Every structure is written in C-alpha cells, then in structure tokens.
Amino acid sequence: MNDPLLQILDQYQSAHPDEAAMVERVRALASTHDDCFERTCVPGHITGSAWVLSPDRTQCLLLHHRKLDKWLQPGGHADGDRDVLRVAIREATEESGLDGIFALSPEPLDIDVHRIPERRNAAGEVTEPAHEHHDLRFLLATDQPTPIAVSDESHDVRWCTPREVHALTQEESVLRLLRKSERWLESR
C-alpha cells in the first residue's frame, strides 16, 4: 500500500547513498505500518516539510514553532494524504499565508527522522506521547511577492538570508537543508 513512498525512498537512497541509515528508518516505518500517514501511528508517522525560497531565491522561509520553541522550516502531518510533496506545499501555504508555492524538484531535498517530545496538559496528564516524525523535505519556491502571515502554530515567520539562518538556529537538520538548497541552486 505504501509502494509510492517506498519508490521515493529507493530513488532518494540511490542519489544519496551516504544517507542510507536515515532512509532505512523511514522505510522500516512505511513497510510495517500501513497507517504511517496518520498522526495516530505510533511509534511515528510520515510528515512533509518545505524549504521555501523567496522569489529572487536569495532567502528561505523560517518560522518560530510555537510548540517546539525553535526556528524551523514549515511542515506538518500528512493526516492521511499519501502525496508527501502535496503535504509540504499545503503546510507551507497554511503556515505562511503565501500564494503560489510550487516545487523546484519533485524529489525530496532531504529526509530526516526526529523525536517529538511528549506533551502534557496542566494537570500533568500525557496528551500526546513522544513519537518520531519521519520527515520528507522538499525544495519549494514562490514567485508571488505576497506578504507572509504568522499562523496559530508559530510565534513568528520570516524570510531569512543564509547568515540570518545561522544566527537564528543551530539545528543541524535546518542547516543541512540550507546547505543542500545552496548546492541545488549552484548546480542549476
């Protein structure tokens, strides 16, 4: 049932053999959990993220995530949608208010698995268990210079130069996205 995702993972691993361990973690989830596109799937689930470039391709979009209190790329849960690129575009649009977001490549720019800590309510009861996001990250852009808007999921959202990205975060997965996008642009 998850054959299209497994094909994406095969293609990604062929292009990035040095990332085989990360790809295998996602493949193991997709091979053993048919419900991996649902947020109810534990130990983790598939998510889609977006590394969005500005119309002039000199800046990227970062948001200050409300729940995680970190500067990150837009992204979120598939909620049953098995087209992870579509998920990434939807999440980037919802979290930024930008129009006209599109993929610069149909292949993932990066794949990452990261732990999401458990959440508790005011009474100390677990409302969401700790789990993993198996995140496929796509290189997107917009040619529409529409204003960005902060969603309920963020404290802030902004366009950032590479220097500003380094000033806002030391998250290796975010810095890796920056490096990969710079290499992708240089190769064009």
Automatic annotation (TrEMBL):
Signal peptide: none annotated. Residues 43-182 form the Nudix hydrolase domain. PANTHER family: ADP-RIBOSE PYROPHOSPHATASE, DIHYDRONEOPTERIN TRIPHOSPHATE DIPHOSPHATASE. Transmembrane segments: none annotated. It comes from Posidoniimonas polymericola. CDD domains: NUDIX_Hydrolase. This is NUDIX domain protein.
